[in-house]
Amino acid sequence: MLLVLCVDLDDDLGRKTGMETPVVGREAVKDAAVALATADPEDSDVNVLFEGIHIAEEIEDETVEVAAVTGIDGREIEANRKVGEEVDRVLAEISTSETIRAIVVTDGAQDESVIPVIRSRIQIDSVRRVVVRQSQDLESMYYTIKQVLDDPETRGTLLVPLGILLLIYPLTIVANLLELPGTVFGIVSGMLGLYILARGLGVVEWVDRTVERLRTALFTGRLTLITSVVAAALLLVGGVSGLNTLEEVRATQGGLDAFEVIAAVLFGSIQWFAAAGVTSSLGRVTDEYISGEFHWRYLNAPFYVVAIAAVLHGLSAFFLGEAALEYLAFMLTAGTLLGLASTLSFAVAESWAEEKAGTI
Predict the structure, then answer these.
(1) In angstroms, rounded to a whole number, what is the distance separating the alpha carbons of residues 240 and 265?
(2) Sign of the torsion angle spanned by Cα atoms 268, 272, 278, 280
(3) Using an 8 Å Cβ cutoff, are 53 and 31 in contact?
(4) For residue 306, how far is the Cα from the chain centroid?
């Protein structure tokens, strides 16, 4: 069975028509398209809905169903989550024993950001992007530019850097009149360059996602937030300790090659790095347990960190002349046995837990 899935990530359908989503069925989607076209004839999601109906009517060699799902305006993470929930509801509503595949219909790259969420729930055969044909005369071009500049997101992306660029020259004149240092021009140019670079590399979106995750962790009581801060502090202390050890070794042994420099830094910092790894992994394991998604194999992480730290400490100590070959052999063996023991132990524990859950 083929499902033609029309995606409206910013929920124009729900906001402008008041309709409940998801919308399932050709007639229901057609009614939704007419309602949205009546409410806002210029909305591109109207074309998405009609394109979904058009695709369904073209396919005659198999059973086809049409559905429309929506997200939330202005909040990408919540929008993707809502689309996933509505896809689950659509699949639950379609009662069939056949394997369901999907054709996803969108109106642009922004809506296509939800494709991984949909793919995690259903096989996607293709993605159809609806592009509305426009006349190429001057009036149409003017109208298109006007529509683009009316979009808040486009204004922030296009007009802000353009405005900063146009301000550089008058700011330079003002700086000369006030006999300010010539660095003003460089500072403004640097700010513009950083802004454009951040936009191009997606740093702004990454910062927004990070802030959203931190806010979620803060208000949901996730221990990972605290352990991550502690782990970062331990990494910082470890870096300083490693550099101090490097200076001490240089003072006693003189010139060092690149390999000995790495060994010295590791020898002074590995215990702090190991503490950071154990702290971070224990916080993650605790959160997984509280959320009900705990697996015994997650407990391997702190043991692996300790095993790796033991091996690296033995190697760095040996190459710096701080330990004998016997100590290196002992640390290599201990690290290997610790990793092997934890892997087998927690694999057996998880198998036992699954068997016990299956008998309940």
Answers:
(1) 9
(2) negative
(3) no
(4) 29
Residue 171 is encoded by which pair of tokens?
Answer: 């700011």
Q: How far apart are CA 201 and CA 190, in angstroms?
A: 16
pLDDT, tens only, 300-313 = 889 999 999 999 99
pLDDT for 181-191, tens place per residue? 556 566 666 67
Please tell me the distance from the alpha carbon of residue 287 to that of residue 203, in angstroms, as a whole number: 27
Single pTM value for the model: 0.45
**How far is it, in rounded angstroms, from Cα 112 to Cα 169?**
40
